[in-house]
């Protein structure tokens, strides 16, 4: 095996890691914010229908087509080409990030909804009856319980988004997978290069798994028999 | 000696769920220090009545007053201003649920200091001191850092009582506080409530424990199909009820218990 | 944009027929990938619950690796890497190139192997959800392991597994779009080609999205139906 080539390749691929992480984290942050809004919308009937339609559309289609739709498709509209957002929407970075955010929000909102449904009714009632405002009930009781319930599913979503960032290489972004593709077309050593790239993603998801196990133990000690 | 003043009063209270008229005009007054037991058959509306007081269910008509605050909601909803009053009223009440409803993500102590800190904005040290004393009173000082899920039902219910007391309530409402408990755990909870009665706390208790009701109550109220059918001292209601239905209910109950 | 909807029709300059064919190819790739994932995933799940220590560790490592790596990388690896390997072998044998491997095969294998990792997770969870008591009840009446599995464990585990397997099927459909990078003409590839040719990007990507929505929605209904069926049987059997 050509270790010099492998380590050189790994160094080269790692140059794409900042962009991968940047896209992944911003997508998660944006997606979480949007998923909160989607769940708030669900309190009204019209909002609920809209949120359901959104989730249906984004979970029912491949992320790849969502990326292409935003990057190539939106430019079909004159008002977008002449609109104030065009400086952003012509950039592959912003298009890729937008697609990742919209996609993540659909999945995260369902995860959050599951968590919210798992909050015991009695716990909320006890909070209301103690005189808390709706906001305090949300902040002190509902959200903490819901977030902790949703944590295992959410950690899967974090891994899934980190992996999904690989797809933006199809619209010319040079994150880890983009660099790997370019290197393959130069050297034709596909096996070594893609295995190197795979190792980077694998390390990332192992890290997320560890972090989430730690967070779970820390955040829901009552399920693990620990005493603070 | 001054006469005790009214802690809690209910007048003309009505509540329906759809076409099901559950409460059909209830009047009830609790003076400071009163212990009122609410008894009645299953489905007679006891829980609904109790839940209407802190507006967990919003009455269709009638007035609920707690101390200085008073609410007369109409049409089964609260306006924004009424909701603020309701919150104030809730702050002056303690509520103990059949299923305890402790907050699973907070320890025993945290459950007790939650409302003092985040509703009443009291200083932390003071809230913790008071909570510690309350846990001692219900016999759970050594469990202050345990999680609710690790306690027995009886212990959870005693924490719930401490949590209600931490509100410094004008009156405490109990909805069948021992019905979800294994028989051998009922005693420890009743003992705590009995001690509260001896302290002169104002309480409204929905219960099926007739012996207990007879012993601690200053007044017993029998509810039937959404109306107060019989009310009086324990001696009157248990010894010589005027209503035939009340008599039938009680004899059924005592037969079953024997 | 004045979308010319005849572009989507079946007329002489319509792409309707091509899109329909591409939709079928998506279905074809997905079914093949899902079934190979099911076969291999069952094996992995079995190794994880019943295997000896090294087998169990191996199966766990497999699941961790394939769940931690982007699907598109796996496809690249199988397609371009496969081509590299085939070329190396061919050249060594003195054959003359160019060497190529089928995008369909590489795609189905890649997605199937990724799905196997996920499906093994679902199946293992379903197995673990079977109440221990029912297994013991089978043991005390003297069932052999095989009978126990066939009559007690499998029927119960299947019911729990259906929703999870439905999700896996849904993600296989969506992952099948990635096979377009090999040049295989399934839905994603076909709409990209049509969009490029006609310069009607939005129109064709929207059409593609709708094709996927139709496939995912219809199959969701099928899985729901299956779930209800199995639950009904479960109740009858339970009483
Ligand atoms: N949220 C609700 N929606 C619809 N109907 C309700 C609701 N809550 C209570 N009811 C109905 O109101 C009636 C009275 O119920 P309530 O719980 O007040 O009875 P109860 O006297 O407390 O009975 P129990 O002794 O069984 O607790 C019942 O017929 C019940 O079905
Ligand atoms: Mg009740």
Structure keywords:
heterotrimer, A: 228 residues, mainly alpha, MetI-like fold, 79% helix, B: 258 residues, alpha/beta, Rossmann fold, 2 domains, six-stranded mixed beta sheet, four-stranded antiparallel beta sheet, 10 strands, 39% helix, binds adenosine-5'-triphosphate, binds magnesium ion
How would a crystallographer describe the biggest sheet of chain C?
Answer: none
What's the total count of β strands of chain C?
0
Biggest β-sheet of chain B, characterized?
6 strands, mixed
Q: What strand order characterises the main sheet of chain B?
A: 6-7-8-3-9-10
Order of helices and strands of chain C: HHHHHHHH
Oligomer, anyone?
heterotrimer
Terminal CA distance of chain B reads: 43 Å
Determine the structural class of chain B based on helices, strands and strand pairing.
Answer: alpha/beta
Relevant CATH superfamily of the largest domain in chain B? P-loop containing nucleotide triphosphate hydrolases
> Radius of gyration of chain B in whole Å, from Cα?
18 Å
Ligand types:
adenosine-5'-triphosphate, magnesium ion
Number of helices of chain B: 9
Quick overview:
The complex is a heterotrimer of chains A (228), B (258) and C (239). With 228 residues, chain A is mostly helical. Chain A has helices at 3-14, 17-41, 45-60, 63-73, 78-81, 86-89, 92-117, 121-129, 134-164, 176-187, 190-219.
Give the arrangement of secondary structure elements.
The complex is a heterotrimer of chains A (228), B (258) and C (239).
Chain A: H1 3-14, H2 17-41, H3 45-60, H4 63-73, H5 78-81, H6 86-89, H7 92-117, H8 121-129, H9 134-164, H10 176-187, H11 190-219
Helix pairs in contact in A: 1-10, 1-11, 2-3, 2-7, 2-9, 3-7, 4-7, 7-9, 8-9, 9-11, 10-11
Chain B: E1 6-17, E2 20-31, E3 35-40, H1 46-52, E4 61-66, E5 69-71, H2 80-91, E6 93-96, H3 108-118, H4 124-137, H5 153-165, E7 171-175, H6 183-198, E8 203-206, H7 210-216, E9 219-224, E10 227-232, H8 234-239, H9 244-257
Parallel strand pairs in B: 3-8, 3-9, 6-7, 7-8
Antiparallel strand pairs in B: 1-2, 1-4, 4-5, 9-10
Chain C: H1 16-50, H2 53-68, H3 71-92, H4 103-128, H5 132-140, H6 145-175, H7 187-198, H8 201-238
Helix pairs in contact in C: 1-2, 1-4, 1-6, 1-7, 2-4, 3-4, 4-6, 5-6, 6-8, 7-8
């Amino acid at each position: 095996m050509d270790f010099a080539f492998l380590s050189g390749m790994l160094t080269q691929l790692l140059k794409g890691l900042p962009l991968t992480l940047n896209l992944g984290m911003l997508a998660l942050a944006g997606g979480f914010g949007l998923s909160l809004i989607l769940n708030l919308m669900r309190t009204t009937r019209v909002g609920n229908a809209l949120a359901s339609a959104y989730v249906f559309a984004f979970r029912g289609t491949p992320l790849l087509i969502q990326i292409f739709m935003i990057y190539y498709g939106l430019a079909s509209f004159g008002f977008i080409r002449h609109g104030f957002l065009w400086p952003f929407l012509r950039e592959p970075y912003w298009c890729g990030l937008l697609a990742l955010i919209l996609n993540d929000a659909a999945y995260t909102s369902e995860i959050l909804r599951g968590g919210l449904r798992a909050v015991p009714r009695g716990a909320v009632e006890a909070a209301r009856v103690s005189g808390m405002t709706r906001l305090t009930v949300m902040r002190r009781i509902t959200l903490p319980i819901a977030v902790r319930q949703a944590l295992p599913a959410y950690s899967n979503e974090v891994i899934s988004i980190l992996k999904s960032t690989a797809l933006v290489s199809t619209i010319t972004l040079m994150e880890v997978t983009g660099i790997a593709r370019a290197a393959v077309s130069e050297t034709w050593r596909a096996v070594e290069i893609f295995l190197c790239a795979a190792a980077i993603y694998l390390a990332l998801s192992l890290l997320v798994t560890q972090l989430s196990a730690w967070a779970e133990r820390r955040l829901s000690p009552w399920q693990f028999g620990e005493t603070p | 000696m001054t006469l005790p003043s009214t802690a809690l009063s209910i007048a003309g209270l009505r509540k329906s769920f759809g076409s099901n008229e559950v409460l059909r005009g209830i009047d009830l007054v609790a003076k400071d220090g009163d212990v009122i037991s609410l008894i009645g058959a299953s489905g007679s509306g006891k829980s609904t009545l109790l839940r209407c007081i802190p507006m967990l269910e919003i009455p269709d008509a009638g007035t609920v007053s707690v101390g200085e605050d008073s609410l007369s909601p109409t049409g089964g909803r609260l306006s924004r201003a009424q909701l603020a009053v309701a919150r104030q009223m809730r702050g002056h009440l303690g509520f103990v649920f059949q299923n305890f409803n402790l907050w699973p993500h907070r320890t025993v102590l945290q459950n007790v200091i939650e409302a003092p800190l985040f509703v009443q904005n009291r200083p932390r040290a003071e809230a913790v001191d008071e909570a510690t004393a309350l846990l001692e009173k219900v016999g759970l000082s050594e469990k202050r850092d345990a999680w609710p899920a690790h306690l027995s039902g009886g212990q959870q219910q005693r924490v719930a009582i401490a949590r209600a007391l931490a509100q410094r309530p004008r009156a405490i409402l109990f909805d069948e506080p021992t019905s979800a408990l294994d028989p051998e755990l009922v005693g420890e909870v009743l003992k705590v409530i009995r001690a509260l009665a001896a302290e002169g706390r104002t309480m409204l208790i929905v219960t099926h424990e007739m012996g207990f009701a007879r012993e601690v109550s200053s007044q017993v109220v029998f509810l039937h199909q959404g109306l107060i059918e019989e009310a009086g001292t324990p001696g009157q209601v248990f010894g010589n009820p005027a209503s035939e239905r009340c008599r039938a209910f009680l004899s059924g109950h005592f037969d079953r218990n024997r | 944009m004045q979308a010319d909807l005849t572009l989507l029709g079946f007329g002489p300059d319509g792409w309707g027929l091509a899109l329909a064919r591409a939709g079928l190819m998506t279905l074809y790739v997905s079914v093949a990938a899902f079934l190979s994932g099911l076969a291999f995933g069952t094996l992995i799940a079995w190794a994880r619950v019943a295997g000896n220590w090294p087998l169990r560790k191996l199966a766990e490592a497999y699941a961790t690796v394939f769940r931690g790596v982007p699907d598109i990388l796996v496809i690249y690896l199988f397609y371009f890497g496969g081509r590299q390997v085939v070329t190396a072998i061919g050249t060594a044998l003195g054959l003359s190139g160019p060497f190529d491997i089928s995008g369909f095969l590489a795609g189905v294998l890649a997605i199937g192997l990724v799905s196997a990792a996920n499906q093994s997770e679902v199946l293992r969870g379903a197995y673990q959800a079977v109440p221990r008591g029912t297994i013991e009840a089978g043991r005390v009446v003297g069932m052999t392991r095989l009978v126990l599995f066939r009559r007690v464990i499998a029927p119960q585990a299947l019911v729990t597994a259906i929703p999870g397997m439905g999700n896996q099927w849904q993600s296989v459909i969506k992952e099948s779009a990635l096979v377009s990078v090999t040049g295989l003409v399934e839905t994603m590839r076909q709409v990209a080609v049509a969009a490029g040719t006609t310069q009607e990007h939005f129109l064709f990507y929207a059409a593609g999205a709708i094709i996927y929505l139709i496939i995912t929605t219809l199959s969701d209904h099928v899985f729901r139906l299956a779930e209800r069926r199995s639950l009904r049987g479960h109740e009858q059997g339970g009483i």
